Input
Amino acid sequence: MTWFHPHDVARRMELGRLTAIAVFGVLLFAFFRLQVLGAERFETESRENRLRSLPLPAPRGLIMDRSGNVLAENVPGYSIAVLPSDPDSLRGALQQIAMLTGLDSLRIEALLRRYRSSPHEPLVVRRDASFEVISALEESRVTIPGLVIQSEPKRRYPYGEIAAHVVGYVGEITEEELASNRIANARGGTLVGRDGLERQYDERLRGEDGWRFIEVDAMGRTVREMGDASKLVPEQGDTVVTSLDIGLQQFVAEIFPEGRRGSVVAMDPRTGEVLALYSAPSFDPDLFVGGMAPELWQALSQAEDQPLFNRAIEGRYPPASPWKLAVAASALRRGVATMETRMETPCSGGMLYGNRYFRCWDERGHGDITLREAIQHSCDVYFYQLGLRISLDGLLRDGVSMGFTERSGIDLPDESTPLFPATTAYYDRRYGPRGWTSGVTLNLAIGQGENTQSVINMVKFYAMLANNSGVAPVPRLVNASATEPHSLELTTDQLEELRDALFLVVERGTAVGARVEELQIAGKTGTAQNPQGPEHGWFIGFAPVEQPEIVVGAIVEFAEHGSNVAPLVTRVIRRHLVGPDSDRDQVRLVLPADSAPGPVPILPDSSQLRRTRGTG
Output
């Protein structure tokens, strides 16, 4: 048996008493810290746990035409959102919402991914919900935790398909865009521009979102909304005023051949202001508001006629005979020909060069003619020989200096870069040093071969011809880009002579059927070879000849000849300069019976280098 000394027992008791006092003191201090010192902080945390912030989307800025007509506006709409507390409750809420709104499983999974990336933000489930859907959800609100329904601005496009390729449309920001942080102050559900001016000027149009606060219970159900004093009011985006003349744009859409593909661009050659830019077929931008069903998107994006494709700035076509004016300008600036120069071989319907026969578009021939007459009648044989005089290297150098290797610079996204060889090294790389002949020069001289241009780029070139300076401003709808202007480097007299020749094209040449009595219009027809189907028709014109105020270019796919397109352009010019004054202005242009259309030739087929038939 162990005996403790009385002093040891007393010492141990004292130690236990001190330990108990210390533990009690620590607990007392902890309770004091929680109950007294931390009371304010925990009260604040408790209050914040019950308050949830909701963004108030800012109305996007208006887009207007030159006269103040609204091209893109905001109307009242409804959005559906969820305040998620955890993944399980969120999935349950989404499944309940799906039964009333038709939300599919793919969309639910996408929403769950967005929640995982931003778990503390309200999750926008659907925008542009109908009143019927909102009513059904309101009846089930108590069973759907975290459901929030609020009014917010909805984008609307009053002119629909008529201006779709210019104005564009909006859509929700993607997860990839959020992760990249390319778009400032964006969050899940933010609407951003997807095409056209909506995309080009998205930052200006978007505005600043506001916020409001609501009180929720433990289940995430809304208890009450805080007062107006707690709201942060959203700021609307800037209004964007364009150079577009929506009346002219409507007129173009009304007279464009029904069921045909192509585009029309009208521009003021003095300022670069784009007055109309139309592409057919088109689409309804309102379909994109609030999200588009996958099957509808698939139908639009995979349609054979490509309605989402902006043929005015994205389509690239052989420029055909309108490009002959670039060859004529090159000859004048180099001094290898004047407007009265005749070629060694008169046109008899074709020309033998080496062991190949290069045809003229007119098998009857044009005889012994001058450069002025060759432009008037679009004689291929004359331009074959003129191209040989200039040389392939000369044609390429001058084509580069005139801007045929560059985009026009218009302030719209996705403009295509033209295909035009900068030097002969292009042919060496593609066909080998001995894989091509001087035949490429002949093809190039009539606007065929390795040369594809957009409508906007060709309109810009004809604006250079229309101006006494031989320089064209950069095309613009709102702001001009910093693109350097190009010059034809011709004298005022030489430019006047070219305009006179183009005037003869309309008065007595290949476009005589498109004459407008009260106007002096200059222009050029063209027939672009299409290895994949019927040929495309070009016409580019400007007026009045003495002091041009408008230049209009058009291409209609599978139109078979430029003379079929010329009336479309001259009527647009007349509508702008004279105004609508009769019912006949509203008659849609009718082309010859449709041929079976094929795919759009965006790039030239190599077989074009071997084609020998000319174009008018």
